[in-house]
């Protein structure tokens, strides 16, 4: 040991031992705090009230959450890709494609997709590791919408991808409606000018 950072741990035994070690430190620290009195500098520097205790604890939890995000983003032993989705390196180039093909089942049957299966990591991370649920979701939904819009623009009849026939029919109807609106607006503009 000693080389690298704690996030690169690659053995389940090490992860369990780390939890036992940190848990025992927390238990002994709690006992020590119960049995001893605060030092003079701590009595002067810290606020002593219920709200302050709560805020100190929430601050400590947030630090642990940020550490957990690093594990979640990089470590495949603590958070296997099979259950939590790909790690950062695994998903760097193929994240959107994986979302569309595996999670949305695009190309087989969009209408009966059984919903996201590996979105835990998608929704809880960004390249820097912070928790940003909404932004990632919006980014992926926007990509999915762009794909469907491109299908409509490129004359769906010529597309040979395996997509739900209902989706193709819907796209053709939307395309016909759009063409009809454009035709009516051209006639209307011609009438106004004439």
From TrEMBL:
Query: What would be an example GO MF term here?
Result: chlorophyll binding
How does the protein's chain sit in the membrane according to the entry? Answer: Multi-pass membrane protein
Sorted keywords for this record are: Chlorophyll, Chromophore, Membrane, Photosynthesis, Photosystem II, Plastid, Transmembrane, Transmembrane helix
Which residue ranges traverse the bilayer? 20-42, 54-74
According to its UniProt entry, one GO biological process term is: photosynthetic electron transport chain
- Would you name any one GO CC term? photosystem II
Localization in the cell: Membrane
According to UniProt, the name of this protein is Photosystem II CP43 chlorophyll apoprotein
Q: What species is given as this protein's source? A: Cajanus cajan
């Amino acid at each position: 040991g000693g080389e690298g950072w704690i996030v690169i741990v690659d053995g389940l035994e090490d992860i369990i031992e780390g939890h036992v070690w940190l848990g025992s430190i927390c238990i002994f620290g709690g006992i020590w705090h119960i049995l001893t009195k605060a030092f003079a500098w701590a009595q002067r520097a810290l606020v002593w009230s219920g709200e302050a205790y709560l805020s100190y604890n929430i601050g400590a939890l947030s630090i642990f959450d940020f550490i957990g995000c690093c594990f979640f983003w990089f470590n495949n032993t603590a958070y296997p890709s099979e259950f939590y989705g790909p790690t950062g390196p695994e998903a760097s180039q193929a994240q959107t494609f994986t979302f569309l093909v595996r999670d949305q089942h695009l190309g087989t049957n969009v209408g009966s997709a059984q919903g996201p299966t590996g979105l835990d990591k998608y929704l809880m991370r960004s390249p820097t590791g912070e928790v940003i649920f909404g932004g990632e979701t919006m980014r992926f939904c926007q990509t999915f919408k762009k794909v469907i819009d491109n299908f409509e623009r490129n004359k769906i009849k010529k597309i040979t991808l395996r997509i739900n026939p209902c989706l193709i029919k819907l796209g053709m109807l939307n395309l016909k409606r759009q063409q009809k609106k454009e035709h009516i607006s051209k006639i209307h503009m011609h009438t106004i000018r004439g």
